[in-house]
Amino acid sequence: MTGARPALSRSLRLMGLAITLSAASLLASAPASARGPDGIADIAEKVIDAVVNISTSQTVEAKGGDRGAMPQLPPGSPFEEFFDDFFKNRRGGGPKGGGDKNSDMQPRKTNSLGSGFIVDTSGIVVTNNHVIADADEINVIMNDGTKIKAELVGVDKKTDIAVLKFKPVKPLIAVKFGDSDKLRLGEWVIAIGNPFSLGGSVTAGIVSARNRDISQGPYDNYIQTDASINRGNSGGPLFNLDGDVVGVNTLIISPTGGSIGLGFAVPSKTVAGVVDQLRQFGELRRGWLGVRIQQVTDEIAESLNIKPARGALVAGVDEKGPAKPAGIEPGDVVVKFDGKDVKDPKDLSRVVADTAVGKEVDVVIIRKGAEETRKVTLGRLEDNDKTQQASAKAKEEPAEKPVTQKALGLDLATLSKDLRGKYKIKESVKGVVITGVDGTSDAAEKRLSAGDVIVEVAQEAVSNAADIKKRVDQLKKDGKKSVLLLVANGDGELRFVALSVQ
């Protein structure tokens, strides 16, 4: 019996080896499907010639003491760090005061590379604005290495999109835009571009998220992907498995400067509209509603009898804007615009911007708990418009003793000439001024401060501190949990704040 143990032990070891080999063979076959769909190579081959490199040069003023002619390498080039260290050491190792002082201040050229793609065989290219910004010269480099000078058609800084044109020297291949709204989470996508100046590179990944707002601009609506995107990929296309462009690779989030699987692309639905306008007008002509909006929080929704919390709260209306004659007022909540649901302020900003200037649209608002529809003829958003500040001096007013009250953790006073001067409040601002805030109150948490002016309480105008105290007491009796305040700063900029009355 004792002699059987080694044999049994040997048998168990062999069985274990067989199980291990079997598992290994299964694992070896798994990565073939894990790497992605088989069609990636076919798609890449089909569209690669429509993806181009964008080369730019810019003349900049040299800084004093910047000696030597360091080669102008594209940012992120594999040799950039080597040459940077070499020339820093060379500049630091020379004799003090050596060299031609005048030559230190000579202008020099800097070069950079990005990506782009052809959308029209006549020579129309789409890229990022930041790829070509401030460039003195722009060149398109084809996949076969052909270099052609390009001209700028137009840019849109808000979406970071630019359109170029060049004269083809041979027949081109163009790609078309797909429908980014149909993208699903987990769907495979392909990024092609010029990372680290290495030329056309293909990477694949999935759609990690949609409608991503990362606070880069007013119309943030990024596609997030884990397809490898690095420096130099900017302006390159993001393809779906039909070979259609569903996004323009624009930026990454990375502590190291390299890809960590957090890449962002402007969706094709946004890009296609921008490209059409830039080709037609050379600029963007966005719709304008003429309102200032803010988020509808749960507290604000409760104060306005809106369930569930949704829409964009109108905090202010431009006196010369399209919303004013349509009867839209501060306190209204926009829940639908031109047939499209508005879930939050970003939704409204994007849909208004995408709507044609001069179009009459239905705007559904909630006012005092009831839905109303207003017809608005959109104006055009002017990026350079500046609000004119009133400069007329106010008439002399006799000094008056402020009437003060305490409510909602606030010290409140009726506006007077002395208080306007103390808190620099414009004459056009009407209401009740806050002169103090209890640091432990809900008001302090909502960042109300001395000098803010309460214009309305529960959507009714107030002119003295006693009004606020009476209305808050009445809301408590009515069982309300919160009160909605319309608050202005000294310049008259409005916002809504909901405070607990319990």
Describe it for me?
- The radius of gyration is 31 Å and the shape is elongated.
- The N and C termini lie far apart (84 Å).
- Among the domains are: 180-281, Trypsin-like serine proteases (Thrombin, subunit H, Beta Barrel), CATH 2.40.10.10; 287-380, Pdz3 Domain, CATH 2.30.42.10; 404-500, Roll (Pdz3 Domain), CATH 2.30.42.10.
- Strands 21, 22, 23, 24, 25, 26 and 27 form a 7-stranded antiparallel sheet that branches.
- The chain is an alpha+beta fold.
- Strand 5 (147-156) and strand 6 form a beta hairpin.
- It has helices at 4-34, 40-47, 80-93, 101-104, 129-132, 268-281, 298-303, 345-353, 417-423, 442-445, 465-477; strands at 51-60, 108-120, 124-128, 137-141, 147-156, 161-166, 188-193, 201-212, 222-225, 237-239, 245-252, 263-267, 287-288, 291-295, 312-317, 333-337, 340-341, 360-367, 370-377, 379-380, 404-407, 410-414, 432-437, 453-457, 460-461, 482-488, 494-500.
List the helices and strands and how they pair.
Layout: H1 4-34, H2 40-47, E1 51-60, H3 80-93, H4 101-104, E2 108-120, E3 124-128, H5 129-132, E4 137-141, E5 147-156, E6 161-166, E7 188-193, E8 201-212, E9 222-225, E10 237-239, E11 245-252, E12 263-267, H6 268-281, E13 287-288, E14 291-295, H7 298-303, E15 312-317, E16 333-337, E17 340-341, H8 345-353, E18 360-367, E19 370-377, E20 379-380, E21 404-407, E22 410-414, H9 417-423, E23 432-437, H10 442-445, E24 453-457, E25 460-461, H11 465-477, E26 482-488, E27 494-500
Antiparallel strand pairs: 1-2, 1-4, 2-3, 3-6, 4-5, 5-6, 7-8, 7-10, 8-9, 9-12, 10-11, 11-12, 13-20, 14-15, 15-16, 16-17, 16-18, 18-19, 21-22, 22-23, 23-24, 24-25, 24-26, 26-27
